[in-house]
Design goal:
Rossmann fold, two-stranded antiparallel ribbon
């Protein structure tokens, strides 16, 4: 069984974000980049399924510029067997990403596609659901546990009332949540081996897709700076401020 995992290159979650002076986006110059954390979880789960002999191949795919090869090499070092880069200099909306992945899935014919539930830059949580709709495949979102037996997939997901377990036949789409697993670190030998693993580059235009712009960013602004707190010397002063300044009493 082949598993396809979609990954994305994003700004490292521990880096302080800076907005461009013209407010057209986020400044990525000389900024540390890394694999989207939810995608790391998706990749880890695919590798674990292969290690259990439930899958024969794990393929990592990303959409981006040549710099995204770094993220794919990281995926190969973590245990993916090969990687695919769909080359594009543009930032795509969730629907267009789903359409591109749909074309890759049609070409690769995996039996299971695992994605992170969302990226930490867009936070849209849309691509897995849109991809499932385009493929007309069953889907399970926010997976906290995955069990695979023969051609049946069982996914446990957290809902407001507790846990929900879904059962479905393959092929299927799964999006991963934080509690699914703990991603591994790449060892030095595996980093060296990753340099020899196949990484194919595909021009976006070669997929023959008609992609329209569905989203327009008008401006990007940094959050307003919060004012510092003040110390009060009595309960009466606190109540007075709550009544007359905050107006919550």
């Amino acid at each position: 069984m082949k598993i396809l995992v979609a990954v994305k290159r994003v700004i490292d979650p521990y880096v302080k974000i800076r907005v461009k002076t013209d407010e057209t986006g986020v400044d990525t110059q000389n900024i540390k980049m890394s694999m989207n954390p939810f995608d790391e979880i998706a990749l880890e789960e695919a590798i674990r399924l292969r290690e259990q002999n439930l899958a024969s191949e794990v393929v990592a795919v990303t959409i981006g510029s040549n710099s995204s090869e770094e993220t794919l090499r990281q995926a190969l070092a973590l245990g993916a067997d090969r990687a695919i880069l769909v080359k594009s200099e543009k930032q795509h909306c969730s629907l267009n990403i789903a359409k591109i992945l749909n074309a890759i899935v049609t070409k690769e014919q995996p039996e299971l596609v695992i994605l992170g539930k969302q990226t930490i830059d867009g936070d849209n949580n849309q691509t897995p659901q849109m991809l499932a709709a385009l493929l007309k495949w069953p889907q399970a979102t926010f997976a906290s546990n995955i069990t695979l037996t023969d051609k049946t997939l069982q996914v446990t997901r957290e809902i407001d009332g507790g846990l929900e377990t879904l059962s479905m036949h393959l092929p299927a789409i799964v999006s991963t949540d934080l509690r699914l697993n703990e991603p591994r670190y790449a060892s030095l030998p595996n980093i060296m081996k990753a340099k020899r693993k196949p990484l194919d580059s595909i021009e976006l235009d070669s997929l023959g897709l008609q992609l329209k712009e569905h989203l327009q960013i008008l401006s990007v602004k940094a959050p307003a700076v919060r004012a510092g707190g003040v110390k009060l010397d009595s309960i009466e002063s606190l109540v007075d401020k709550l009544q007359h300044e905050a107006k919550v009493l």
